[in-house]
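Homoserine O-acetyltransferase
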Amino acid sequence: MPIKIPKLLPARAILEEEKIFVMDEDRAITQDIRPLNILILNLMPNKEKTEGHLLRLLGNTALQVNISFLKMASHESKNTSAMHLDQFYTTFPEIKHRKFDGMIITGAPIELLRFEEVDYWEELTAIMDWTKNNVTSTIHICWGAQAALYYHFGIKKYELPHKCTGVFWHHIDDYSEKLLRGFDDIYLAPHSRNTNIVIEQLNNHPEVKLLSSSEEAGPFIMSSNHGKQIMITGHLEYDAETLAEEYRRDMDKGQINLPLHYFPNDDPNRQPINKWRSHAHLLFSNWLNYYVYQETPYDWD
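Structure:
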């Protein structure tokens, strides 16, 4: 089944070329079914690229999904055109009266700032508080995951001596969790961040479950006890080239952060291979099915 997106969204052409089933508003209104309403708070600098990453995964299930994009009213984006934001994005005051079946809060390259130093922290905490009663389940990615752990559960982050970047092996810590249904016992996933989580606080918190982790990268997938908040410290949504693009961006800044286990033979001149795609699709389809579709009311009113 398709995802419903704005008719003129640039990511549509890319998704259709990859045979991802998308549908615009004109076609969607002819179908007499209850679609899922998913809100994406996109905090990444290159918003169009992140749109493609997430829509690719949300569009690969048997569910019809309506997508709404949210931006921060208290922050001016420097890497995405105002025309794109005005055309496809809304702000929190415009949607806070609504209910959403699911939500995704992305990461942002601001891990080295204290949470309270982020210029939109107050607005973000208002949104995260709003999700408790207005969203069935929310996925938080990378910095968004650390922000959620800090705001909802008081679990702090700490700065790493070196950037955690690369593709790492992960194992399952909780086989009973439906989010990981169908996962291999060990699997690969990308990470890209400068901070990590205080593992002792995580393990000792009664409201948070560690579902999957990595010996090299640390805690990866966590969930609140009822799956209302899901925290993912890495980037299963990344495509094969994303870490290479970030590596070149860091090099331009004079930072040498070669992603581990990513380039063939650790040679940045060679084409990287996507080794995590199937688990990315599996995680998002499990989330949409078990945590959103199976749990959300047919009629919120």
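Residues 3-160+195-238+277-293 form a domain with the Rossmann fold fold (CATH 3.40.50.880).
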